[in-house]
# Entry
Amino acid sequence: MLNYNPVVKSEINQESVSVKEISPVMKINLRGKKREFLTNVGKNLNMILPTESNTSTTSDKLTSIWLSPDEWMIVSNELVNKDTNKYELYEMLFNSISKTNLGAVIDVTDQFVQLELKGKNIYEIFSAGCPFNFDEFKEKKGSTTQTVLNHIDVILHHKEENVVNLFVRRSFAQHLWDWIEDSSSRL
# Structure
């Protein structure tokens, strides 16, 4: 069992941008193609996985982010217990999907750091270090993308107007945090 250790010890609070780490939050990677996989996941999550590229679906407790035609990231909308990384939902999905060879269920909670960026200038920060065109992304709530930010692979989820959840691998989180802090101070 891994105990969660936050990567970032503070928050960024500039005039038009604020950034904080959201932790600990359960994150599960799902992979599968079969109709039985989609049906089984839908029953267990009580939600339908998004099938359109670069979209997400949200329920009260979970958000499902489309990553590829056969891959999704399931993220808890609520904080979880810091003392353990055993999740009832993960166990349920693993038993009904991985053990029955319908697909793969992988706990990636400790692999990804989730940052929440808020403010009217967050897209200026993204545009400074990313080749992605955010014009359509920022207009559509729930849109997602996998891109590169300051040469680091990230997953972006448009949560609501001027609020974006950013998922970055733990090993790159501090470097990306420092870059965001420097970029936001220049706005």
Notes: The radius of gyration is 17 Å.
